[in-house]
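W.,

You were right to be curious about this one. When I first looked at the sequence I had no strong expectations either way, so I just let the prediction run and decided to look at it fresh. Below is the sequence, 331 residues in total, followed by the output.
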Amino acid sequence: MKRIFISLIAITLIALTGCSSGGGPSNSYDGAVAETTMAMASDEMYAIDTGVGTDLPDAAESEKMIIRNADISIQTLNLDETYSKLTAKLYELGGSIHTENTEKNDFSAYANAVFNLPPQNLDAFLAYAEECGKVTHKSISSEDITSQYIDTEIRLENKRKNLEKMYEYLDEAYNSEDVLNIQREIDQITADIESYQGQLNYWSRSVAESKVNIEIRQLQDPDEIEIEDVEFSTLSAENMGKIMSNGIKKCADVILTLLQWLIIIIVTLLPLIGVAAVVIAIVFLRRKLLDKKHPERVEARKLAKERINKARNYQPNSTNGADSGYKKPPQ
């Protein structure tokens, strides 16, 4: 109903456009747009008449298009053997390996792969995979895209018809504005055609080839696990002597390394030490020269030292009351 309503609106607008332009000659581009709109409206009506978007066509008229894919996870005790069996069966059924990845370590090993094979052989491959190990997960997806495929085919055909019409209108255009407008429509229709064709190609490949995401994980056999006996023993005199000798050697190496680094640091700082020694020597010599020129400086320093020594050695005598203001500190 929605498409019929849109088509009626388009036809009504075209009729009104024709009535309003009846008083003079019509522009070629206006006629092109009008005829293109009519073609689109007729295409919509054609899609409705063929049943696209409503009910699927009968099986006798079109072949069902179904995309079938599967996921399966398997646990096994021998990863290499199981994977070899599955790939051999895959090639036997006309399939191929899309991607594969295998990793192994001390505790486990696993492989992830994507297999491509004909849809009619998908069930046979999955049945064989169940015989190669313990299946922990399996899922099969099936999607019927018949309706979408037919609808896209019809839209693609209509777009091609519209493109042919637009090229005819392009040949009849009289001015640059009409040419630009028509060319813009052609570019848009061409992009739509490429999009529809790409979608059809993708669906065709998906229908013609099923994908199987398979994961194989190897488990360690519990029967093959051996528990080693734990033994405790004391060190022999020879081993004890070796351990002590190695300890002494390591300590000597540490001390020697520290001495080496100390020498390196001293040698590195020699320029700074030399500069500091020169500065100290200059200060000392300058002081000596000043003392010779000004003897009173020497006397002043001596008096200052004596006052400092007296202050340090001062002990007040509280017995004769000479220093009545002195108080003995609390014990």
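Here's what jumped out at me. The chain has a mean pLDDT of 77. And, maybe more interesting for your project: Residues 64-223 form one domain.

Coffee later to discuss?

I.
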